[in-house]
Amino acid sequence: MASSVSSPVTLSCQGILFDMDGILISSLGSVERSWTRWSQMRGIDPAYAISVIHGRRAIESLTAIRPDLDGEQELQILEQFEVDDTADIAVLPGVKELLASLPPERWTVVTSATDRLARVRLAAAGLPVPKRFINGNSVTEGKPHPAPFLAGAALLGFPPEDCVVFEDSASGVQAGRAAGCKVIATTFSHESESLTAADYVIPDLTAVIAIPTREGVDLSFHPLPR
Q1: For residue 8, what is the DSSP state?
Q2: Where are the beta strands (DSSP E) in the chain?
Q3: How many other CB atoms are found less than 10 A from the CB of residue 89?
Q4: Side-chain half-sphere CA neighbours of 202 within 13 A
Q5: How does the average pLDDT of the chain come out, rounded?
Q6: pLDDT the model gives residue 4
Q7: pLDDT tens-place string over residues 162-211
Q8: Are residues 55 and 171 in contact, defined by beta-carbon separation less than 8 angstroms?
Q9: Considering only Cβ atoms within 10 Å of each terminal Cβ, which end of the chain, N or C, has fewer?
Q10: d(Cα 118, Cα 97) in Å, to the nearest integer?
Q11: Secondary structure (DSSP) of 53-64
């Protein structure tokens, strides 16, 4: 039988790219309520819509579900639903401690949410909003395309191969790997079996220790056995 405790791992990197929803904050309630409201308004089975949206930009999900509608107009409607629904936005375990230990120039957020929605959710959770971050409005190709994480690495000024990505969705993991980054996945929204493309899988950020160095950051953690 495999041991339930793995050997510790230390990764040295120059930059860290955090997904937002499912890594820094929990917004599942808002997401599902907002998409249910939109689906019912547009005659879509909410369960179907919710099953295909995670880890993708909303504009891509909307056009895939209702290609006959104007995607930008539908995005404005959905975005307003989500902006208005922040009552149960919550910071995930270990996040505040990890962010507080990182130099601000060494990390940023790479999210599929729109710029407006990302700012609203981070503020609702009481988390710092990076001066510059990548959102759904920043790129023309969303996850699982590597463009968001390539843009995030460029924003920090580091090669993607010197960056570590934290993700919770299969599409986000694929995007990080395709960009050439090391990827650490959490099991917040997906079982570990669907995160096999990640370099490492952890339950959450509580056991991640970041130690700034002259060259960058050393990240230490215990990955789940694979």
Answers
A1: P
A2: 9-13, 15-18, 25-26, 90-91, 107-109, 163-167, 182-186, 200-202, 209-212, 217-221
A3: 21
A4: 24
A5: 93
A6: 54
A7: 999 999 999 999 999 999 999 999 998 777 888 999 999 999 999 899 99
A8: yes
A9: N
A10: 20
A11: HTTS-HHHHHHH
Do 14 and 152 contact (CB within 8 A), yes or no? no
| Prediction pTM value | 0.92
Concerning whether 21 is annotated as a catalytic residue, the answer is yes
Specify whether the CB–CB gap between 181 and 200 falls below 8 A: no
CA angle 102, 104, 105 (to 5 degrees): 110
Both tokens of 85, joined, read 């629904």
**What's the pLDDT at 190?**
74
Q: At 122, list the tokens.
A: 């981070």
Q: How many CB atoms lie within 10 A of CB 171?
A: 18
Tokens of 26: 């929990």
Angle between helices 147-156 and 170-179 in degrees, nearest 10: 60
Known catalytic residue at 45: no
Residue pair 198/218 in contact (Cβ under 8 Å)? The answer is no
Question: C-alpha distances in angstroms, 157 versus 132, 148, 153, 187, 215?
Answer: 12, 14, 6, 29, 13
Q: Which amino acid is at 41?
A: M
Give the residue, 2 or 31, on which the prediction is more confident: 31
